Amino acid sequence: MFRLQSSKVLAVEMTGDAVKAKNGSMVAYDGDMAFKKLTGGGDGIRGMVTRRLTGEQMTVMEVRGRGVCWFADRASDINLVGLQGDTLSVESSNLLATDGGLRTGTAFTGLRGASQGNGLFTTTVEGHGQVAIMSDGPAVLLRVSPQYPLTVDPGAYVAHQGNLRRSLQSGVTFRTLLGEGGGEAFQMRFEGDGLVYVQPSERNTIGGDV
Question: pTM value?
Answer without folding.
Answer: 0.80
